[in-house]
Amino acid sequence: MTAVNPKADVLHVVGGKPLTGSIHVRGAKNFVSKAMVAALLAPGVSILKNVPEIRDVQVVSDLLRLHGVSVDVEPEEGVVTIDATHVELADVADVDTLSGSSRIPILFSGPLLHRLGEAFIPALGGCKIGSRPIDFHLETLRKLGAKVDKEHEAGIHITAPDGLHGAKIHLPYPSVGATEQTLLAAVLAEGKTELSGAATEPEIMDLVAVLQKMGAQISVDVDRTIRIEGVKSLQGYRHTSLPDRIEAASWASAALATHGDIFVRGAHQPDMMTYLNVFRKIGGEFDVRDDGIRFWHPGGDLKPVAIETDVHPGFMTDWQQPLVVAMTQAKGLSIVHETVYENRFGFTKPLVQMGATIQLYRECLGSLPCRFQQRNFEHSAVIFGPTPLTGQDIDVPDLRGGFSHLIAALAASGPSEVHGISLIDRGYEDFRDKLVALGADID
Ligand code: EPZ
Fold it and tell me: Which residues act catalytically here (predicted)?
């Protein structure tokens, strides 16, 4: 993938055709990037398989290379080989050029502290779907003994003059990133770490598996407590990534929204159970096979559903946006209560311009405990359908919102122009080719 040509960053879509056919989903974006960072913990070679060709992999590869690590990516085979025998401090300005595109740099902290005694974390990027602070990350690092200097003008300078030491840490919210931060920092810390209130997403469990292969001692209790016993050294790993359950669900929602029929090779039922329950409730049909899942719209009306996004094993926040497009085609009132991010409904505005009826509310329209209660965030949505959608010019706002706009354009009658389409390359491998394979009329 090379630099984006603004003229080539527009996708012309003529909607109204059901998406039908078969596509292949490879490894999970939100695991692969973390497993690549884990390789930094050990001098030696790590080999990661089932890696998709997406921009986040490119960004992490570049970040690792800036730190003197050798990274060899074979995109066709989906194999990344990382040799972290040599690690050095990166030039601050060089790291800064990559920081706007991802939140991964913060996870370099623990490994760099262990290997070099210091780390520099630039201002972070990632999707604009809320304020996305890093207070849990920094508090975790401090508890393990790191000194965090936020006065540096270009970012945060972190040091550990006396090394990292095991600690008792509690997360006020089961943050995925802060859990990963703790794992990556505590595996080589001296002594025991107890992390309560941890996130337990399948991608985190796969990271625990990688760390165990590397020699780490980690146990996960049923009550969201993770215990880590620091070891003196780790070794490289060989691992095959779990499939991307967000991408798989996105294509499933695309099948629903376009009255289509898509076989998602690689989709893995156990990680998608909560999504599959909702998919069935709204009226979609699926067939779980050995090598993937077939998703289809059986004809007739879709049914309205009420969902609340939550941490695992709840309904993932990243599943919500593509499904909202399908909800615009269900007969009646559907409700989405977003409890993970305070500001994840910006993507609904273009859908309304396309003809959808969606009303946003500050109130919690659901029963889950929610941090945004009594706050000023429009974090609940009511979707009334079915409403015909018509093509529009759309600007991609963020990764998942952008994919949902693409689905809406494919479900709509008439032409649409989707601008800023390269943002979708961050997390959807070869989506243009996949759309063509599914019969989409795109250019
Ligand atoms: C990961 O983000 C994913 N990103 C997100 O996927 C995903 O939506 C999210 O987990 C939840 O599943 C990656 O893995 C790269 P969090 P992360 O820490 O780790 C608050 C996608 O489209 N919080 O679990 O950044 C935070 O503001 C992306 O693939 C703090 O308050 O998410 C949010 O409200 C988008 N302080 C909540 O916790 C902190 O220090 C959950 O965030 C950290 C988080």
Answer: 127
Going by CA atoms, what residue is nearest to atom 30 of ligand 1?
133
**Which of 410, 430, 431, 427 has its CA nearest to residue 15?**
410
Q: Whose CA is nearest to atom 27 of ligand 1?
A: 132
pTM above 0.90, yes or no: yes
H and E: helices and strands count for the chain: 13, 23
Mutate to test the pocket of ligand 1, among 60, 102, 132, 245 (most ligand atoms within 8 A of CB): 132
Which residue has 């080589």 as its token pair?
A: 188
Q: Is the pLDDT of residue 8 over 90?
A: no
Give me 410's structure tokens: 């494919």
What are the binding residues? 29-30, 103, 318, 340
Token pair of 404, please?
């949902």
Does the annotation count 364 as an active-site position? Answer: no
Helix (H, G, I), strand (E, B) or coil at 287: strand
Measured between alpha carbons, how far is 335 from 54 in angstroms, rounded to an integer? 32
Mean pLDDT of 257-279: 98
What is the dihedral angle through the alpha carbons of 165, 169, 29, 32, rounded to the nearest 10 degrees? 30
Residue 97 — pLDDT band, cuts 50, 70, 90?
confident
**Above 60 in pLDDT, residue 2?**
no
Comparing CA positions, the residue from 417, 406, 403, 408 lying closest to residue 388 is 408
Q: Please identify, by atom number, the ligand 1 atom nearest to the C-alpha of residue 173.
A: 38
What are the extents of the domains in the chain?
7-25+243-442, 29-240
From the candidates 127, 184, 330, 394, which is the catalytic residue?
127
CA-closest residue to ligand 1 atom 10: 176
Q: How far apart are CA 206 and CA 270, in angstroms?
A: 13
Q: Which CATH class is domain 29-240?
A: alpha beta
Closest ligand 1 atom number to CA of residue 180? 19
